Amino acid sequence: MERKAHWENVFSTKTEKEVSWYQEYPKTSVDFIMALPLPLDAKIIDIGGGDSYLMDALLDLGYTNLTLLDISAKAIERIKHRLGDKGLKVTFIVSDILDFEPSETYDFWHDRACFHFLTEANQIEKYVKIVERSLAREGKLLVGTFSESGPKKCSSLDIKQYNEESLRLLFEKDFKLDGCFKEAHQTPFDTTQDFLFCGFKRK
Length: 203
What we know:
The protein is an alpha/beta fold. It is built from 6 helices and 9 strands, in the order ααβαβαββαβββαββ. The protein has a 7-stranded mixed beta sheet. A two-stranded antiparallel sheet has the order 6-7. The longest helix has 14 residues, at 121-134.
């Protein structure tokens, strides 16, 4: 409940450009998805996306089977308002990722900057198990976290930094690492945050 209260406060008191993770256009994520490639009816879920512009971009590209999960009802309310009628093509789920019980399987799992807020071993293990249950037999995932040269805190919360090997080890039971890359994210405050993105596919 403390985690939920924190994020409800963030999305109730800050505009989209007053948070460090803001992107006018999520080019990295969109380019990755288009390179897979995924059919336009692929089941895509975005974890902890808040009111980011990934849903807008994917809808504009013609994707039709989208799900957005976020812990903050306020964030979901904001993106619904922005999308208007286009939002009818998106399934919105208000839930802590650790409480998520998928009722279907997904072809692609996208997480940019949610996973690294899980700092305890039991939380991380639970997340990995949820991914394993949620992805289809040939499912793929992209996880974006702060790298070892990235921030140690975000939104006043501790985070867990990762390198390629530490991410690989977490998911290796069911998933094969399919490549990693780094990105320097420019925040609205003229600072830089170093991210690590790793793609995986089910073994």
